[in-house]
Amino acid sequence: MFSSKPISLLTFSLFFFIFLNAATAADPLFHFCFNKENYTANSPFGANLNELLSSLSIKVPPTGFGVTSTGKLGDNQVNGLGLCRGDVSSADCKTCIVEAAKELQSRCPYNKGAVIWYDNCLLKYSDNYFFGQIDDTNRFYMWNVQDVEDPKSFDPKVKQLLSSVSDKASAISKLYATGELVLGTGPDPKLYGLAQCTRDLKGLDCKKCLDDSISLLPNFSSGKRGGRVVGGSCYVRYELYPIVDAQKV
Length: 249
Description:
Belongs to the cysteine-rich repeat secretory protein family. Residues 1-25 form the signal peptide. By secondary structure, this protein is of the alpha+beta class. The protein has two domains: 26-131, Killer Toxin P4, Chain A, CATH 3.30.430; 140-239, Gnk2 domain, C-X8-C-X2-C motif (Killer Toxin P4, Chain A), CATH 3.30.430. It is 29% helix and 28% strand. The chain has helices at residues 44-59, 90-107, 151-170, 203-216, 218-221, and strands at residues 2-7, 18-20, 30-33, 65-70, 78-84, 113-117, 121-126, 139-144, 176-182, 190-197, 227-231, 234-239. Strands 2-1-8-11-12-10-9 form a seven-stranded antiparallel sheet, covered by helices on one side. Strands 3-6-7-5-4 form a five-stranded antiparallel sheet. Helix 1 (44-59) packs antiparallel against helix 2 (90-107) and helix 3 packs antiparallel against helix 4 (203-216). The longest helix has 20 residues, at 151-170. It is elongated and about 60 Å long. The protein starts with a strand and ends in a 10-residue tail after the last strand.
């Protein structure tokens, strides 16, 4: 079983918990309707949003990432971004983005800014131009509720692995990397890690986003068998089992 909670770096008092039971790959991990402004049905903004979501469903799958804007500058322009996990196939990427678009419009009807995450992808849109900027507001935690036997020795290894993976991810154009760390003998011989950023970020900003996320892990997943910090610009994850399909990495 995993637990999750959303956070804002502006306030740590608004925490709540969600327990994910029998979740499937098709279920969203989380979403935010983050804009206080709404649009009306059949409005120019709504038409531009529909066009944007359709465009992203075509633009994102071939490479796993895409950004686009629809409409003219002003109240009716919509800016959007889609990202699929680095090992996800084009077909699965398209399926995820299409489903995410439907869910966003269902969960955040008439909202001018929203983001949703799945295991395979994230999708975000806003009336504000956000490309190239680190999103450190829309972020949530997930962790395995089971503990490891020796947290004092385990936690530093998590930081070691994820710091290494962060370095790798931020240094390549795909801004995505995975890694493993041998723990030794026992029931869990390896630790697995993953780091990824949205590709509108520069390498240095990706590194900052990932390192900030890694620094937050001890707040909730210290001594836990798995954990992740998932945001609108980057995410990090570690587990005691393989996270991705090694054949596709």
